[in-house]
Amino acid sequence: MLLLIGATALAYLLGSLSGSLLIGRLRGVDIRRQGSGNAGGTNAFRTQGWRFALAVVVIDVGKGVIATWLGLRAAAAAPAPFDTAYAQGELCAFAAVVGHCWPLFFGFRGGKGAATAVGAISVLTPMLVAPVFAVWVLVLIATGFVGLATIVAPVVFVVLTATTSVTPANDASALIAFAVAIALLIVFTHRGNIVRLVRGEEYRFEKARLLHRLLR
Question: Among 13, 19, 104, 207, which residue has the least CB neighbours within 10 Å?
Fold first, then answer.
């Protein structure tokens, strides 16, 4: 039990290593003071360019991968307090996403959790990464709204986990619970985007609206 608690705490600390803020310190910038004020990959791209954003995404996805792997390894090394080791991996994965959103090292002001969640999903259910990402791309090229695409994708992840056999039967409920928790968290962190979408004030990435340009 103590090993799991330690792994979960370490996963949160890993999540708190915000890619945009760490790289930003090297460049002498804090992207929370620029653009949308968010410390995520989208704002990094808009304010600092694609190279900066790519490095941010690599770090943020990577810490989701490491935290989830850490949880699974901790479960294998100690008696499981949960029904399955899978649930312990998911607990660490969720802790990392929470750390990304509310990082201890940066005043609890971080990103919105999507990239770190992708890293976690790539370890827990790698076969679902491609379809979820495809939905994200389709929504983006259809609407130009990055926030909307990022809200829809985790909802689709919930549907896929509930309707496909991607884990052993005894792990299915744990995966669905994780998917729902991640979806709710990402919807919550994008609540400002939802308000702006309703008001018609959300930033639209026009260059990404490929479908719109094709149909014109």
Answer: 207
